[in-house]
């Protein structure tokens, strides 16, 4: 048995042995990879508080941050076997389990924030949340993960030309990998928890993420150039194991769904505040923040859309549906 399998086994035993607390209180474990100062973590703490209040203490969500229970992908796999109740993932991570959701990783897909919100909160968003259920993963709600931009160690990225030859950390997503290639750089998947060290050691030359994640991860201590080209707006998704969900009664499901929905409203507010604070504090720390013209970046990824149109017509049809949302 490999170390990984032993770890999964031990976690499984631990989680199953503590699924019911004192007095018959229903306890659901939620693991994620972010730090406790991240606005997404704060929103999930708020969600747990709401569940406790709505259930009058009969249901609790226990949160394990900082990859205590595994990486993002490992947590998803634990959900699939029913050993973990809930997690937060990037929708890009869900691509391996629900391929249709990769449309949300398309670069420059949304016209603006209003367009994005209408898509995610409307019929298309609900449809994509349900896509992973056949893989034992139920989407509850989207969290704002902002817009992703490049940060690097040695120079500002003012055009795709500046990315050529660089090793850029990317999400474990085919769409994200192909996007990085279209900019002329070498995509290098690295676990988020290992990225700080990878940047320090030169395993990668840079990465791409939103302002709060760059700030709370302290990656700005290594990368002093942040070029806000906003190439993607990949949302986070709060998901629950269907093997856990299906054991809940209707009232328990309602408590969780209502708490998740309300926490998303709170998270959007926290996120907006965090973006402003993160940019302000990073500037104080000496990070050079620029806002390059997006035009050459948009032109560089047009080939991705042409490829999708030819090779994945169903995906391109979803792109067209999203573009038609007013």
From TrEMBL:
The keyword Cell membrane does not apply. It comes from the Bacteria. One of its GO terms (molecular function) is carbohydrate binding. Gene3D superfamilies: Bacterial extracellular solute-binding protein, family 7. GO terms for biological process: transmembrane transport. This is Tripartite ATP-independent transporter solute receptor, DctP family. It holds the Pfam family DctP. It comes from Aquiflexum balticum DSM 16537. The keyword Nuclease does not apply. Keywords: Receptor, Signal. One of its GO terms (cellular component) is outer membrane-bounded periplasmic space.
């Amino acid at each position: 048995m490999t170390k990984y399998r032993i770890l999964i086994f031990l976690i499984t035993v631990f989680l199953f042995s503590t699924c019911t607390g004192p007095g018959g209180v229903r306890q659901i474990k939620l693991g994620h990879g972010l730090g406790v100062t991240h606005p997404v973590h704060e929103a999930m703490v708020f969600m747990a508080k709401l569940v406790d209040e709505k259930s009058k203490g009969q249901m609790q969500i226990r949160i394990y941050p900082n990859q205590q229970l595994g990486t993002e992908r490992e947590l998803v796999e634990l959900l699939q076997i029913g050993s973990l109740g809930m997690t937060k993932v990037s929708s890009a991570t869900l691509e391996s389990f629900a391929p249709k959701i990769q449309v949300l990783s398309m670069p420059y897909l949304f016209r603006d924030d209003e367009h994005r919100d209408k898509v995610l909160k409307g019929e298309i968003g609900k449809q994509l949340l349900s896509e992973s259920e056949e893989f034992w993963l139920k989407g509850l709600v989207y969290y704002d993960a902002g817009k992703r931009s490049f940060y690097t160690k040695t120079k500002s990225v003012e055009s795709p030309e500046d990315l050529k030859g660089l090793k850029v950390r990317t999400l474990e997503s085919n769409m994200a990998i192909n996007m990085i290639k279209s900019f002329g750089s070498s995509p290098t998947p690295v676990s988020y928890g290992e990225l700080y060290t990878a940047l320090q050691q030169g395993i990668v030359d840079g990465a791409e993420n939103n302002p709060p994640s760059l700030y709370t991860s302290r990656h700005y201590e290594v990368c002093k150039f942040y070029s806000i080209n906003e190439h993607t707006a990949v949302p986070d998704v709060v998901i629950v194991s269907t093997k856990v969900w299906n054991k809940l009664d209707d009232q328990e499901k309602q408590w969780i769904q209502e708490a998740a929905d309300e926490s998303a409203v709170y998270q959007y507010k926290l996120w907006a505040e965090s973006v402003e604070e993160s940019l302000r504090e990073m500037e104080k720390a000496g990070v050079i923040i620029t806002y390059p013209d997006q035009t050459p970046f948009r032109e560089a990824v047009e080939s991705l859309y042409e490829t999708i149109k030819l090779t994945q017509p169903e995906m391109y049809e979803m792109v067209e549906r999203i573009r038609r949302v007013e």
